[in-house]
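Long-time lurker, finally posting.

We've been working with 4-sulfomuconolactone hydrolase (Morella rubra) and I want a structural starting point before designing mutants. I don't trust myself to interpret raw outputs, so I'm hoping someone here can both generate the structure tokens and explain anything notable. Sequence follows.
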Amino acid sequence: MATSGPDPTVTGSTKVIDSHLHVWASPQEAADKYPYFPGQEPSLPGDVDFLLECMGEAGVDGALIVQPINHKFNHSLVTSVLKKYPTKFVGCCLANPAEDGSGVKQIEDLVLKGGYRAVRFNPYLWPSGQQMTNDVGKAMFSRAGELGVPVGFMCMKGLSLHVAEIEKLCVEFPSTVVVLDHMAFCKPPINDDEITVFSELLKLSRFPQVYVKFSALFRVSRIPFPYKDLCHPLSQIVSSFGANRIMWGSDFPFVVPECGYKGAKEAVSIVANQVPLSSSELEWIMGKTVMQLFQGQWLQS
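Top reply, 14 upvotes:
Generated this for you. Predicted structure of 4-sulfomuconolactone hydrolase:
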């Protein structure tokens, strides 16, 4: 595939929207106004100017910004970006599972006043020994559904550790939309245990509120760019969920040293052509799904 110029298979009349990326302060911004959380100083540049440059070069029209751990529960940097570029970006805030229950109010404030339209559940931020299905987790998950904002799950240490919690929340709160970040961190299975876990991912399609991010391909592939070992997993996910419940995401800026931001977009077309997917299915994955999920945010060109 040519690496220059727009990709006709994913442009056309549908915008290309990145469903998963991060921004954080530049070192200067961190010193002046938006400090990093102690111990979470980034090792990569991830400021919004760099992001906009990458998006422009790759022909990406908009994105969902996921609050980075580098600023933890201080959302002021991402909020400033959302206010500056209201038609380009949507925000996904980070749920605070503090035992005092203050996380519910934080979600309300960020959604109702800060312009955020999604929430991220990071299970590794819950107090030791606690699960996302504890009273605080249920209260935040339920409130997200009432506010009409999806909840994204980061299963970095493996879906098998968290699938029972996700299923329980889906059953109890069917009106809350669920998004599984990075294919729920399921790599192409190569042994019986991994086959079982991947089948658990596919079984989550039985809940109509569950969506999958085909994102951070460099994290879930076992081989270098263009990550062709993801052809069969993508085929299975499309068969189970439908392309209209799958969305591409780059995981900027972590993807930049892996294959470049533009490469993150191109890899999806290369994998999709191998599956093969129809141009309509690819359009859903590259933008239509996330645009449907966040209606009114990115207008059709």
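Before you design anything, note these points.
Confidence is low (pLDDT under 50) at residues 1-12.
Residues 279-293 form the longest helix (15 residues).
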